[in-house]
Amino acid sequence: MNKYLLSIKLILILCLSLKAQTKDIQIKVITAEENEPLMGATVYFETLEKGAVTNFDGIAEFTKIPDGQHQIIISFLGFETFETSIQIPSNTALVFKLKEGANQLETIVVQSTRSTRTVKKTPTRIEFIGVEELGEKAIMNPTNISMVLRESTGIQMQQTSLSSGNTNIRIQGLDGRYTQLLRDGFPLYGGFSSGLSILQIPPLDLQQFEIIKGSSSTLYGGGAIAGLVNMVSKTPDEEPALDIMLTQTQALGSTANVFYSKRNEKFGVSLYGSGHYQKAYDPEDDGFSNLPKTTSISFNPKLFYYPSDKTTLWFGLNGTYDDRIGGDITKIENGADGIHQYTEENNSKRVSSQFVYQTQLDSVSSLEFKNSVSFFDRNLTVPDFNFDGKQTNTFTEITYNATSEKTDWIIGANLYTSNFDENDNAPIQRDQKDVTLGAFANNIYDLSDNWILETGLRADYNTDFGFFPLPRISLLYKNDNGFSSRIGGGLGYKIPDIFTEEAEYINFENVLAIDKSTVNAERSYGVNFDFNYQTRLSDEIGFSLNQLFYVTAINDGLLLNSTDNGLFQFENAPDEILSKGAETNIKFTYKDFRWFLNYALIDTKLNYLPGNPQKPLTAKHNAGSVLMYESEKWRIGYETFYTGKQFLSNGTETTDFITMGLLVMRNFKLGSVFINFENFTDRRQSRFSPLVLPPHENPVFPEIYAPTDGFIFSVGLIIKPFGNEDHDYLWKQ
Q1: How far is the C-alpha of 486 from the C-alpha of 69, rounded, in Å?
Q2: DSSP helix/strand/coil, 199
């Protein structure tokens, strides 16, 4: 018996000894070409079923790895997967290099270019915002995407109404109608809905943002004169994901977002829903709301089907109900009473469908078919006036992609229809129908290891405005020392409609319909030139610089001019709108710290007016600084943004101002808690000039050139019961 006891003791001692022979290790991943740390790479121990993602220094940390030999797999989007065996303990540092992958069809880095190339091998300049930065902006503003866009260099969010909060995207000083807003490549948000679209797109179910500045009409048709913003949705993975975000602000705004996704071998599903309630908010106590009373509900279900490894089909719906009323606080809360008469109410409903069929024909070619139908119903009511209409848009496209060792081809055709139907009781009928057919071809060709050329040609035909040839060309130079440069240009156009910022500002009252016999389509040409440099200043300090120069000219710009009888009609500008400028982005990294610096020079001239004045409500100088600290448990961000002086339409010069924000987040195993101090210095326009002018019962609202809501403090909770590994891929190329 003693022998048996002794044997058991020896076995236990041996087991404990073996268990104790573990190590905490670090594995560093760098790029093969530049020898730079690769953030976001996945390192996986196959036999241990244990993985980790590299941090900003390219390091993946592991605890309690048993001694002995282990097989590891290192992977990263756009790079070749690397497999090797390592010995623990190791006498040398565990540093591994990843090579950029070939143009494989299953590696899709950026959807907006419709190419399978990595960003660094694409001549078109792209700004890419990944899921982690989107998460940060969602915390700052969980109700819509305005925060994501507002803090991007050279992009301005122009608010057109104090009462409703209607907002447009301005890229490089050009009006919002010149920017094409896409969802998974679908043009769902144009026309009648454009002023409200930014306010009705929550960010939680988005995987990435892709921003192309300058004309992108060759691939996406009319409207992309200033550029495009493509919002790419999250897709289901085999591991289920569930995100729940609850947010409350001191301005009595409450928001709940829920996202769930899961897939198996043949089917996948993603479900997203959000609800938002905002009480009318008046920080100045002037009796008028700076944030409207808002009730908003959004839903976005998607069903995916995978009949084979080469084919994917998915169908999705986007639905939004939004009711917002702003203006006189007394009327909003208690109804009309004496002089308390003015409110602006926007009630809108949106439903859009998306269908996509993708299949890989062979090892080098693929085919994609997509279709969407969008319906938008909006009722805008102000005292003694109502603007009510419905818009239906359809989009159908088929594309063929082919790749080889040195070239990528994209060939396609599409059909876009738009039908705006105003209420029959309207005093002025402004119904408009447009049908546009297009065909396009785009080629990317490797001239050598250092030079890559991209050329494209689109031919669009609109049944009312005629034929539009749209060529474009871009050239990329890159070397192995971290330097690259791009130059490119192209033509663009925009079919005129009544949904401009000027018409929105006056609530479309007394605005005449587009006269297609006298008004021409707007046409543009533009050129971009940029250079990039990335290096390591030391083993711990990384540095990157991106410098952009651009010029865009618009001919036959659409103007809203008054007539002798008190009406407003659209006419073409007799001379061009010329926007030119520069953007600078600088990034430093040190251990868990990131510091972003940016500056934008925006010089937009209205050459059709005497003296070629600066475009109103466009700051010539803008700058920003974002300092981030991120560890396993904490995320802290401090932001500072400077907006220079602007001119109002009457020539008055405004003051410049600085806004600041602070975000603090604490991560836990099953989620996070956060607090956000947005604009904590409380910079708002009412501190510089009145937001509302008398008389009280029929107020006048000056143009908006600064924040109107001031300091917003919010607290929130993010719950992630599973699927809690977010990967962030952030490039600015």
Answers
A1: 46
A2: helix
Q: What is residue 24's predicted lDDT score, i.e. its pLDDT?
A: 85
Order of strands across the sheet that contains 227-233: 179-183, 227-233, 206-213, 127-129, 731-732
CA–CA dist 169, 154 (Å, integer): 11
Q: How far apart are alpha carbons 500 and 577 in whole angstroms?
A: 15
Are 283 and 291 a contacting pair, CB within 8 Å? no
The pLDDT of residue 104 is: 37
CA–CA gap between residue 47 and residue 86 (Å, rounded): 12
Closest to 525 in 3D by CA, of 500, 554, 567: 554
- All residues at 6 or more sequence positions from 388 whose CB lies less than 8 Å from its CB, including other chains: 378, 379, 380, 422, 423, 426
385-403 and 365-382 beta bridge pairing: antiparallel
- Tell me the torsion sign for CA atoms 39, 41, 44, 50: positive
The string of DSSP codes covering 547-568 is EEEEEEEEES-EEEEE-TTS-E
* pLDDT, tens digit, 9 for 90 and up, residues 654-673: 999 999 999 999 988 888 99
**Taking a C-beta distance cutoff of 8 angstroms, is the pair 553, 575 a contact?**
no
Q: Under a CB-based contact definition with an 8 Å cutoff, are residues 43 and 72 in contact?
A: yes
To which H or E segment does residue 220 belong? helix 217-220
Q: Write down the pTM of the prediction.
A: 0.84
Low-confidence stretches of the chain (pLDDT < 50) are 1, 16-19, 102-109, 724-733
SS3 call for 111: coil
Structure tokens at 131: 């899921």
The CA distance from 493 to 484, in Å, is 30
Report how far residue 144's alpha carbon sits from residue 298's, in angstroms, rounded to the nearest whole number: 11
Name the token pair of 319. Answer: 């639905």
Place of tokens 């220079």: 644
Return the SS3 of 14.
Answer: helix
Indicate the pairing of strand 657-668 with strand 385-403: unpaired
Supply the pLDDT for residue 102.
45
DSSP 79: B
Nearest 10 degrees: Cα torsion 424, 425, 429, 431: -30
As a whole number of angstroms, the distance between CA 637 and CA 419 comes to 45
Phi, psi of 342 (to 5 degrees): -90, 125
End-to-end CA gap in the chain: 74
Calpha distance 222→466 (Å, rounded) = 12
**For residues 358 and 355, what is the distance between their CA atoms, to the nearest angstrom?**
10
